Amino acid sequence: MKRTADLPRCPPPVVGFADCYTGGFVDGFHTHDRGQLSVFLGGTVTVSTRNSSFVLCPGQGLWLPANTLHQAVCRTDLAFQVVYVDPTFSGADLPCKMFDVSSLLQGLVDEIVAMRYEFAMDDRMSTIARLLIDELRRAPQIAERLLLPTDQRLRRVCEAITAAPGDSHAIDYWAREAGMARRTFTRLFQAEMGMGFATWRRKVRVLEASSRIAAGQSIAEIAFDLGYGNAGSFSTMFHRASGVAPRTLRAVASHKTRP
Length: 259
What we know:
Number of domains: 2
Helix content: 40-55%
Distance between the termini: 19 Å
Largest sheet: 5 strands, antiparallel
Number of strands: 10
Domain HTH araC/xylS-type: 155-252
CATH topology of the largest domain: Jelly Rolls
Keywords: DNA-binding, Repressor, Transcription, Transcription regulation
GO molecular function: DNA-binding transcription factor activity; sequence-specific DNA binding
Organism: Ameyamaea chiangmaiensis
InterPro entries: AraC-bd (IPR003313), Homeodomain-like_sf (IPR009057), HTH_AraC (IPR018060), RmlC-like_jellyroll (IPR014710), RmlC_Cupin_sf (IPR011051)
Structural class: alpha+beta
């Protein structure tokens, strides 16, 4: 396991390495003084910031600006690459973004990682770094992130549900847990999250299911764990919510996993 502390005292403005974590590992909340680009090659991981949670699969990437508080929870064994970018490097002031990794961006990351830590930022490496930042800027953002509320009462509810996505308690139960009347709970939830409670909980289940599908868990087992009576009803919900069938997602994730 490598960390920014393992970098040389004066690393180049753009530096990267490959690493792997075991399933179940939790890299608790922390920050880096550089922007962090993570490219995931195998396995699934949940990365959480103060206000959002991202579920990432092979072939996807995540950019975190410098000094972003975040943690990573490995759902499975995880293989990935990391590139750290000095915040003073031109164009590195990008907002947080989850995206699909293009073949060009993957090639640029591979080149930076292959150089390890000891290289000069000559014309060639400066061009590679600038092109990397430009590709990050151009990459369409994936909307598959889970927003978390700022109201602490709602946040406790949301954290309880993300910890147990298959929970089937009705909205009245969760309103009581938050210490609110149902009407107050639903109104505040809509105002904070921009969607109703049922829609948000469905999104939790879709993201949870996506990570499990990519990890190779059976559709029937996922359906049962998430509170569905059979795989058919779960698959219908998943297809309607995500626009892709579970088996199709599994095939895509398997294809994107690098050996």
